[in-house]
Design a protein that fits this description.
By secondary structure, the chain is α+β, with helices and mostly antiparallel strands. The chain has 15 helices and 16 strands. Helices cover 41% and strands 19% of the residues. 24% of the residues are buried.
Amino acid sequence: MRKKVLKLTIVYSKKEFPPPPFDQEVEAMQYYRLLYDGEHAEIFPRARQVAQQKRVIPRRVGIRSWRRAETVLSADNQYIVANFSSLIAEVPADLLNRALGNISADTETGPELEFVAGVVEASKPNEKIWAAVTQHQVDGRIAYRARRDSAGTVWFEWVLGDMYFPHTDGRGADIAWIEEWGEEANKQRFLRVERQRLDANGLTVKQLVFRMEKDTVMDEVSIKDYAEDHELDIPEDAEFPNVKELLCGYVANDDTLVYPRGRSALRNIDGLQEEINWTITRDSVVFEQHGKPKLAIPRALWDTVANQNHKDYGGRFVRSADLEVVSYDEKTGATPMYITWDAKTQQSFEHVTRLIKYMLAISKTSPQAAGLEEGKGDSGVALLYLWIQSVIKAEAIKDKFDAALKDAIRKCMILENALGNANLKVANPVIEWRDMLPKADSEKDTEEIEKYSGGVQSLETTVRRMHPDWSEKAIEEEIQKIQDEQAASGLNPTFTQPPRVNLGGS
């Protein structure tokens, strides 16, 4: 019996890109990106049911010249998008962006402290955390990898989830992306792949490139020739015998045993989002057609104006300008009047509000985040309880990104030891996370002082948290001033004065 060979790496040649089973995941990511971006007319079928209408509108053809032109309004122009999907993805990003604080090595001195500071400065995690969390929520996955250039700069970067393909055995991963060259009429497409693979000897990193025809991957081409043709600086294949882990990784959202690579945070709310759009669009179309007041005039008056226009212009019609000055029928008392349409839209508005609340409940988002309820509290504790759903969700996401940031910086240390011949002690950095919700300065300061007074927090941590925008030098000076004042106040006059002496004789 012939033994079946198990393919542990991904085969690209002669196949559509992306390869299965990642093709379904990537297709879902593209769908949820359109949902997040508000391109709902592209994905919701009822958006195309909005009938095309022709409307005559004035267009300016000169500085003071106008002409009447017929314009066709498509479904894209009429379909109204109230995009609450973006809010669901961005609320956790807002909270984590506020909470992420200082990142430093887990040591007070040594080369590790300076190296981690350099990695943080080059990687800019505080500036990029919002984009990473938002994309993580939309796609259901975000990846990262450690990088080092020829100048010796080491950093880590976030990678889109549809570019990261882990191997089936967990011993490797591919980061793949498409590059295009040439003019639009004669554009060439190539698939670039960075493959990281672990074996008994350590880690191997290879650079691959394939020619593509539309979405089909063709034969592999020489990476050296490709780099020369397009003047690219592509790193050479490398082997790291002492490295026992991949220099990349990913953060999954809402992963389960069935979906270990994660799922989008928008996966259960697209139907509700479509119903919200459709309800608002339907009311808008009806109001547009019937909401404009219409002028009703007596029949005799209409005939009088129409007959006069027939004499003057050769046609029976009545224009709005013709009715600016009209005659009054003294016998019947008939005068022109406006007819207005009294639409009962309250039920529709209540229906939309219910749908929005359903969306927020399913996505674990507090109503205060959407502005449906007041989001202000008398204290930080009161505010926390108002936003508790969003905070609990964001706390779970924070734990994953805390581990990812530490892992990414630790991998940068491994890369520096392997390529830079350094001897850094590889360890996770220390990440400070602040409160996700704002507090009054007085309330925040009181909490920090109580922690310090209770002996559960150092003076340095207290000063850092009370003054997060201060420089290192300013923090050190403030700590020294506090210590000097504490030392001075510790000198008790009772103990420093000499003892009393009785000078009187007996």
